[in-house]
Each structure stands twice: as structure tokens, then as C-alpha cells.
Amino acid sequence: xxxxxxxxxxxxxxxxxxxxxxxxxxxxxxxxxxxxxxxxxxxxxxxxxxxxxxxxxxxxxxxxxxxxxxxxxxxxxxxxxxxxxxxxxxxxxxxxxxxxxxxxxxxxxxxxxxxxxxxxxxxxxxxxxxxxxxxxxxxxxxxxxxxxxxxxxxxxxxxxxxxxxxxxxxxxxxxxxxxxxxxxxxxxxxxxxxxxxxxxxxxxxxxxxxxxxxxxxxxxxxxxxxxxxxxxx
Amino acid sequence: xxxxxxxxxxxxxxxxxxxxxxxxxxxxxxxxxxxxxxxxxxxxxxxxxxxxxxxxxxxxxxxxxxxxxxxxxxxxxxxxxxxxxxxxxxxxxxxxxxxxxxxxxxxxxxxxxxxxxxxxxxxxxxxxxxxxxxxxxxxxxxxxxxxxxxxxxxxxxxxxxxxxxxxxxxxxxxxxxxxxxxxxxxxxxxxxxxxxxxxxxxxxxxxxxxxxxxxxxxxxxxxxxxxxxxxxx
DNA sequence: CTGATATTCTATAACTCGTTTGAATAATCG
DNA sequence: CGATTATTCAAACGAGTTATAGAATATCAG
Lengths: 233, 233
Fold this sequence. Notes:
Two copies of one chain form a homodimer.
Chain A: H1 18-32, H2 36-45, E1 50-51, H3 52-59, H4 63-75, E2 79-84, E3 87-92, H5 95-108, H6 112-122, E4 128-129, H7 131-139, E5 143-147, H8 151-156, E6 158-159, E7 163-164, E8 182-186, H9 194-204, E9 209-212, H10 216-221, E10 226-227
Helix pairs in contact in A: 1-4, 2-3, 2-4, 3-4
The structure holds a DNA duplex.
């Protein structure tokens, strides 16, 4: 039984019908999410506006390939770009795009394959601090917030009051952190390995440390105070 | 600059690193959303549990093709299946899967191509009734709710108190609807054409009619009262 | 205008996806 | 058990995607 759905209006045989165009349009956005490099690039642009070259370096792919993938994301309405002098900067197009990524990760997290990959990448689960709790504890002078992301991402925007110590410098710059309060570390999001790794390192070095649930994009989307500053690299 | 992100642990040259596996896992779910038939099938299983044959007929594709696409959706964790006698029934795996579809549609709706396709498929925008408003008006005896979806979808689950009149039978069964209260029509969701078409038809026939915002899945997810009954076809 | 830098485009090759067809498998009914 | 029905699998083809290298374009500094 094919091509007989009278209620939807006639003309089905071989014809491209409006309903198909609509599903095609939705699938077009789905296609933007159908490649691992694009997922990674999407997470990176969610940290702030960055050039193609900077994104390619972070995702460890060639500039040409990053450019191609970013254009697919742009066609899917997930990112926008603007030219500034000689470089083209990409950002997340709007908050719905991050909500979509989060929904994707929520569904994926139920799959065994994701769970295994996450466990292997993130290491043993570390106890997390909630956002509201963190606000209260910082206000009480009871905790200090550390941003473990690369310096350019901190510069593009970070949790108000946080101090920037990229994960790679954490051990050498340990002295900058107070010893009398708990350290709360955050990074890019729930599937970023920096904060679990940073917390593990801090504990090995004898400090009290926990990670923030989620990361910077979620904090910003929750409407909590952020500081945003210097231009992108 | 490639393969030099020291903070993420070494061993990058040619090796498949854990981070890639994680992004690959997310992209796997994205791939499930990257085909128009799969989007349509996802919307259909969101109406209730249905057999492969029934879904293939609704989506106007062959049974073999529907089976293949449903298995991609299952691998992506979006639907589940169970065998009942000679047939295999598919349903939405969990509410997060519908939330993902909704997030996808929200992003897509910002694209010009989607907007055009939606306008062409749904026709001129029709004023909608909110869910809470509808609950109040039905309680006050001020409105009657009509489910325009095919009878099997109504049977699988519907808004409590709604009457089933499939769009194709609306004109001939007009007498079943009261003339003294407003008619509120609903169907599968915000991108389903049945309720706008049904409302337009009712108005042409001299009735007071509006459509419900969204459709049955959204109503159910909002925790509002539903009735669920007979087995799937 | 020229040269340098950043990004995009083009061509190409390997690979994956979508679809159709017909065969294989599973469960039911006589 | 054999026939029937529903679903899945397998092969095969065309179409689309990914990745690479190198050419083309755009902007800026001189």
C-alpha cells in the first residue's frame, strides 16, 4: 500500500511532495550532527568565537577539513561566521544549538558504547558540585573556582570570579591556589576530560578539590554571572 | 600544529584515542537523524507502538527500507522494538528521544529552507490554543477536542476526552460535532499538517475551530491526562 | 601594486549510505 | 509438518560523504 494517503493531498507518484521537503529540512540539520569532527567543533565554538585555524588546531585536523566541516555546521544553522580582517570567526549560532547538542548527548549517554567511551576518556567518576551550591559557597568565601580550559577560551568568556589555570600548567602553578578553601574546577562541559583530570591531579597533590557539574556553556545558559573579555585567537 | 595537545595524554599519531571514540558515539546518534525517512518514522513511532508494515505504509516506503531505517534508529538508541507473535513493534525508546527531535526541529525552524517547506506543507498559520487553556475550557464545557490522526494512532493513545475523527472522514462525519462550542483539533505535533487542514475545512463549513498548539506527544510529555488503549495495528 | 596570511574551492580517491530485489528466518495456523 | 505472513538479511548499484593536496580568493601591510 503506497501513495494512497488521501488526507495529505494527492499527487504522490514520483512527485516531490511538501511533506518530504519538510523532513528533508530537518534531516539537513541532523546531517550536521552526523560526524565526530563536527561534534567536536560544535563543542569548541560553544566556548566562544574562534578562527578556523584555532579550531582546526584544537580539533587536531587540517585547516581545509575544519573549514569544510564548519561550513556544513553553518548550513545546518548551528554556527555563524563573520570576517574580521584576514580571518573568519565562527560562533555558536544561538542557544538552541547548544540545547540540541545537549539533547544529543543525553540520548547517546544511554547507549553502552557511549558509556564505555566516556568512562575511558573521563576516567573514574568524580563527585561534582551543583551550580547553585557553587554560587553560595563562593559568596561565603568557602571555595575558589578554577577554569582549566586553554587561556584563549577563558579570555572569550568564563564564570565570573574564576581564575584561569590551564590544565597543562596546573602542577607548576599550584602555589597560586589557596590551601584553606576547596577548589572547584570546571572546563568545557559534561564530556570534557579536563576537570576530572584536574581534580584527580589536585587531590594527588594533597588539595581538596571537586569538579563543577557540566561546564562553561551550561553555566552561561543557566543565566549565572559570566565575565567576557578579550578577542579570540 | 597537530597531535601536540599534551594535556590530553600522549599517543596521537595514527592511534584511535578515547576522545575520538566519545565524539564518534555522539555522531552515531546524529547519523540516526540524518535521513528524512528516519525523521518521519521517528515522528510516527512517537504516536505509539506500531509494526514495521504499518510504519512503512504511513511513511510511504517499502517494508524492507522501513526495517533498515528502524534498525538505524534502534542502534542510535532512539527507538526500541519487541516481537509480538509474527510482528515486530517499534516505539520511541524514551522521552529524551522526543526531546531530541523537538530540539532538532527548533534549530531547523530558524533556517529559511525549513520555513518555506513548513509554510508550503502546513499552509497559512492558524491561531492555536495553549494546552493549559484547553484543559480549562474543556472543564468549563466550552470546547470539544477532536483527534484528526488515523484511528490506529488514536487507539494507541490520545488526549483524555478527545473524540476521534480522522481528517479524511471529517467532512462526512461533521454532524458528530456539536455546533454550540468551539472545536479544537490536534494531530501529531507542530509540523503535522492534519490539524491546520482540519481547522481550515471546519471553518469553510461554518464551524468555530482552532488547532491545539503542538500535538499528542507534547501533551503526553507535559504530564496532561491521556487515555491509552487498544493494541497497535 | 606586491607579498604574506587566512580561508575557501576544486579535483580526486576511498569509503559509506540509500535503495531495490530476492532470498532467508521466525512465528503462526491449519 | 507444510503453508502463510511478517520481518530481516545479502547482494548490488548509484549517490553522497570524507579526507588530502594544491589552486584560487580575499584581506591587509607595506
